[in-house]
């Protein structure tokens, strides 16, 4: 088990790092016997501490939680309880997918772009309809079944997930609808 415990513009002491490793170890012992990675990042937002936890499971799935509190230990406790709840909720499904999948999830590298939003300068028409690219990054698209994609989206707390469908070998999208249901786009 590898831990990466960092602080953004705050110092993280040995006591907090030991506490994080012990608490996360207890959670992982309950739900997963496979080696995983965990990234725990602490930051400060005004008067509150923010704790973000991302767990990389051995199958390639990720689990993410975030919490805020006025004390740093309380922020971590809230985030770890969310991770615990997500892993408990998906324990059976995670075990089922571990049996079906002998290899980790295959990832494909693709380009990702951040486009400039519309300016609030008034009603002026833009010179061209081409969007302005603010940033270009490399991202990865996992090769999953539809059930695994929905589970990954839920675990990550994301509103949308783009994935490569293992069965049809095409790019698909799952997303959370406004009515709370899950939508699936299969071109």
From TrEMBL:
GO CC field: cytosolic small ribosomal subunit
Segments forming a coiled coil: none
Native organism: Salipiger pallidus
Cited HAMAP family: HPF
Protein task: Required for dimerization of active 70S ribosomes into 100S ribosomes in stationary phase; 100S ribosomes are translationally inactive and sometimes present during exponential growth.
Domain Sigma 54 modulation/S30EA ribosomal protein C-terminal: 130-183
Keywords: Cytoplasm, Translation regulation
UniProt xrefs under CDD domains: RaiA
Pfam families referenced in this protein's UniProt entry, alphabetically: Ribosom_S30AE_C, Ribosomal_S30AE
Domain of life: Bacteria
MF GO annotations: ribosomal small subunit binding
Principal location: cytoplasm
Assigned protein family: Belongs to the HPF/YfiA ribosome-associated protein family. Long HPF subfamily.
Lineage: Bacteria, Pseudomonadati, Pseudomonadota, Alphaproteobacteria, Rhodobacterales
Assembly description: Associates exclusively with 100S ribosomes, which are dimers of 70S ribosomes. Interacts with 100S ribosomes.
Subcellular localization: Cytoplasm
GO biological process: negative regulation of translational elongation
InterPro entries: HPF/YfiA_ribosome-assoc, HPF_long/plastid, RHF-like, RHF/RaiA, Ribosom_S30AE_C, Ribosom_S30AE_C_sf
Name of the molecule in the record: Ribosome hibernation promoting factor
């Amino acid at each position: 088990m590898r831990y990466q415990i960092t602080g953004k513009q705050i110092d993280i002491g040995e006591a907090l790092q030991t506490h994080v490793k012990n608490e996360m170890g207890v959670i992982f012992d309950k739900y997963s016997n496979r080696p995983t990675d965990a990234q725990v990042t602490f930051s400060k937002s005004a008067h509150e501490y923010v704790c973000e936890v991302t767990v990389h499971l051995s199958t390639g799935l990720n689990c993410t939680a975030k919490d805020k509190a006025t004390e740093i230990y309380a922020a971590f406790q809230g985030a770890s309880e969310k991770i615990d709840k997500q892993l408990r909720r998906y324990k059976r499904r995670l075990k089922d997918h571990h049996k079906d999948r002998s290899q980790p999830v295959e990832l494909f590298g693709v380009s990702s772009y951040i486009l400039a939003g519309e300016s609030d300068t008034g009603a002026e028409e833009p010179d061209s309809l081409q969007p302005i690219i603010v940033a270009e990054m490399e991202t990865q698209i996992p090769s999953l079944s539809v059930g695994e994609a929905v589970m990954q989206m839920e675990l990550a707390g994301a509103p949308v997930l783009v994935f490569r469908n293992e069965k049809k070998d095409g790019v698909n999208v799952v997303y959370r609808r406004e009515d709370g249901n899950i939508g699936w786009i299969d071109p």
